[in-house]
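Backbone-to-sequence.
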């Protein structure tokens, strides 16, 4: 049987093997490239897939633990900040017990994790206790001794005597002029942490638990208080090894485990994933790889491989660029290396057009962002940015117990400047005012043009007195500034009104929700504006504070 009389598939194979042309050699090379990668890849996959899957399982486990750790640490910081804030309230410093009970009860009612708030006097007696009417003396308790030493305190994970559920004791000292006056203490339920650990599962049958300083398991996905989550040696290896450790879970199954220390290394956040779940995925991976290899051998041809090579990489890169653009990122490198030399003409044209579009959209977005918050004449922030960012700064200051001053300023007789020297000089005057305000104010201050010839300075960590001092420096600087028209000096002064965002406004925020912080800022702006009005009425070129009649 000669070549011409052979069956078509066999004939094609013989032509492929015997041909001396470049085309036939390229076909032979393409066939080798198709056969070798799947074969070698499947062998390599079979050897290294299990190790890879174990590493990936550990990365997933470690990622979940890192997320849980960050949440728990933020949750703990919030509880500590809350107790520290309660310890510095004026009613606590005055030891006004009825008012203290009222404030503590409001706090406990708005925080689900808090079972009550207790004030212990300097002798250790509970003078205010929203959770119990029983009189106790806690002078021998760790949290009270820590308070006597001027330290805040967070207990180990405890089991509540009445609830049988895990709790913490968080406390802060009360001191007036350096003298110890008592301790504010609150028991905190671990329900929020427990709910998080029960919700964020690792795989289908994995577990995450929070262990106390003795390794006891109190908080997690299983109802197994004090059960063994990790053998002691396994736990130590999990805390020190950068990778998964082999262990046994509470059901007696072989598992992969990882652990992270938190709360100054007194607690352990531990996680486990059954090894059987990893092996099941390993088998599925092998079957999938084998099926994919067989399918590739059946359908891929050198032409298709070449076509895919010319399309796949640039299309993938364009898709990645599109995703970056959708999330507001416009810094992708463009054009991509090799695109011009290897892509089809249509793909190259599309890539170049897309890159140009990315550049133009990025520039437009940056311009829009800048224009949206900037006053075009002075270069200062505009009113919209002041109200949005200012509310956030006021919220941070009030919740942290820090003052925040609000200064409103207005150019005196600005209409006279416009009428006498013209609007161009008026614009120059506003720009000079903006430069002066920007130069004298701190980088943390918000300096904004409020409208027309009105300007606002929001100064965090500055009380009413510091705000008035800053306003006086600004007034003197504006009065000394030199603005000339044809060697003639244009006189210019400003009047200032100063107010402070009041700590009492926290009651408004608690009553009306987070959005009411805007009302606090608007109230400060209103009082600063009234003080500015009094400055105008009493002669201009002066600073008037909100507390002045």
């Amino acid at each position: 049987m000669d070549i011409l009389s052979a069956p078509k598939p066999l004939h094609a194979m013989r032509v492929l093997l015997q041909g001396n042309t470049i085309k036939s050699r390229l076909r032979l090379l393409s066939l080798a490239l198709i056969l070798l990668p799947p074969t070698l890849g499947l062998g390599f996959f079979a050897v290294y897939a299990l190790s890879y899957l174990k590493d990936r399982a550990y990365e997933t486990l470690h990622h979940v633990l890192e997320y849980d750790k960050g949440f728990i640490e933020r949750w703990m910081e919030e509880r500590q900040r809350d107790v520290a804030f309660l310890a510095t309230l004026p009613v606590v410093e005055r030891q006004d017990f009825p008012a203290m009970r009222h404030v503590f009860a409001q706090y406990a009612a708005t925080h689900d994790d808090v079972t009550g708030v207790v004030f212990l006097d300097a002798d250790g007696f509970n003078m205010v206790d929203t959770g119990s009417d029983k009189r106790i003396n806690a002078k021998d308790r760790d949290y009270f001794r820590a308070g006597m030493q001027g330290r805040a305190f967070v207990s180990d994970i405890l089991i509540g005597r009445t609830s049988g559920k895990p709790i913490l004791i968080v406390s802060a000292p009360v001191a007036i002029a350096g003298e110890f006056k008592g301790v504010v203490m609150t028991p905190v339920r671990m329900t929020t942490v427990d709910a998080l650990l029960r919700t964020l599962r690792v795989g289908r049958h994995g577990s995450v638990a929070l262990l106390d300083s003795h390794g006891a398991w109190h908080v997690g996905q299983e109802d197994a208080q004090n059960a063994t989550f990790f053998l002691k040696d396994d736990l130590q290896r999990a805390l020190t090894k950068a990778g998964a450790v082999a262990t046994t879970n509470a059901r007696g199954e072989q598992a992969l485990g990882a652990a992270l220390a938190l709360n100054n290394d007194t607690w352990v956040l531990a996680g486990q994933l059954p090894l059987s779940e990893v092996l099941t995925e390993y088998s599925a991976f092998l079957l999938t790889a084998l099926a994919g290899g067989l399918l590739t051998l059946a359908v891929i041809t050198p032409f298709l491989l070449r076509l895919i090579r010319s399309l796949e990489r640039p299309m993938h890169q364009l898709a990645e660029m599109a995703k970056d653009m959708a999330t507001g990122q416009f810094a992708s490198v463009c054009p991509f290396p090799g695109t011009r030399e290897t892509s089809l003409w249509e793909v190259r044209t599309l890539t170049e057009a897309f890159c140009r579009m990315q550049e133009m959209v990025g520039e437009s977005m940056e311009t829009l962002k800048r224009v949206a918050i900037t006053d075009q004449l002075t270069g200062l922030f505009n009113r919209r940015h002041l109200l949005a960012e200012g509310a956030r700064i006021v919220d941070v200051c009030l919740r942290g117990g820090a003052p925040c001053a609000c200064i409103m300023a207005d150019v005196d007789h600005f209409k006279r400047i416009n009428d006498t020297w013209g609007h161009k000089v008026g614009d120059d005057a506003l720009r000079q005012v903006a430069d002066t305000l920007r130069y004298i104010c701190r980088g943390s201050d918000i300096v904004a043009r409020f409208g027309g010839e009105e300007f606002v300075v929001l100064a965090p960590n500055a009380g009413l007195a510091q705000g008035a001092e800053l306003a006086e420096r600004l007034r003197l600087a504006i009065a000394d500034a030199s603005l000339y028209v044809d060697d003639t000096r244009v006189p210019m002064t400003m009047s200032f009104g100063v107010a402070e965002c009041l700590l009492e406004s926290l009651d408004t925020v608690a009553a009306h929700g987070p959005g009411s912080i805007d009302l606090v800022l608007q109230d400060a702006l209103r009082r600063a504006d009234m003080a500015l009005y009094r400055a105008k009425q009493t002669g201009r070129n002066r600073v008037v504070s909100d507390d002045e009649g």
